[in-house]
Amino acid sequence: MMHLLKQSAETILPRRVFGALQIRRERLRLAKISGEAFDAERLGTITSSALAQALHSSSISTGWLRDEDQISDVMPFADIDGGICPGERRALYQLVASLKPARVLEIGTHIGASTLAIARSLATHSGPGAHLTTVDIVDVNDPTHGAFARLGLASPRENLMRAGLSDRVTFIAKPSSEYLRETDDRFDLIFLDGDHAAPAVYREFAQALNCLTPNGAILLHDFYPDGRPLYPNGSIEPGPVVAAERITAECRGIGFLPLGELPWESKQGVRTTSLAFATNCVGAVRRGGMQVH
After folding, report:
1. The domain over range 38-292 is classified in CATH as 3.40.1010.10
2. Which residues have C-beta within 8 Å of that of residue 82, sequence separation ≥ 6?
3. pTM higher than 0.85, yes or no?
4. Domain residue spans of the chain
5. Is residue 186 within 8 Å of residue 211, measured between CB atoms?
6. Which end of the chain is more exposed for a tag (fewer CB within 10 A), N or C?
7. pLDDT tens, 38-54?
8. d(Cα 265, Cα 5) in Å, to the nearest integer?
9. Predicted pLDDT of residue 13
């Protein structure tokens, strides 16, 4: 019912007005919950120059062009409903290849598009022991609950098996907040792409900080700076950036650095991406909650 109401509102209202209403709604929802403690001590500093180097690296791009064929063989390299778009799958691959994390945590598996890209990059660039843990509130490999079945796709586990990557990934079916609170594991990179409501992102981010290894990284998806549309369809996902507003207001040591434009197309004929890194900005200049170097 709520989805139908949202679709009706999008049809009736201009995109700009509807986006502003979405932002306001998320701010009101977030204001109702109590504050979290944000310990940025383990969070590393991400710079614009480091991102540019990762995305423009010729050696990583060569690896991608080699691995892309295998990825496309097991999952259509297309914009699939609910899955991260092809251009952002490549961005994930290249970022993981540059950071070379030994342990990665993904919140929000869904159809496993990002899971496959991360696992392939770990296998190629991070060494034999590198591993991904991916968490979703449902069993994403169950044909009853997994989104893959209604989309006519193979399950995430089957895709990984076909790609020879089964040993690289552990699937967890559990609410993300519960997993983050209970786990003793620590991760070099955490990718937050689960529940996009501002209260959920706000809580998850605080918990994710506690699960980082020293100098670790947190990457967010569907981050729309200032609530502005990034793609021609004009839609936005307001929760992550609204959560970031409150986080940066409550912890001056944290900023957010959107990737901005990719060297290749992301989706809908543009190169813009909604990926954004959290960064430790102690000693750096902040503008509008973003890290600037």
Report:
1. no
2. 110, 111, 147, 151
3. yes
4. 38-292
5. yes
6. N
7. 999 999 999 999 999 99
8. 32
9. 58
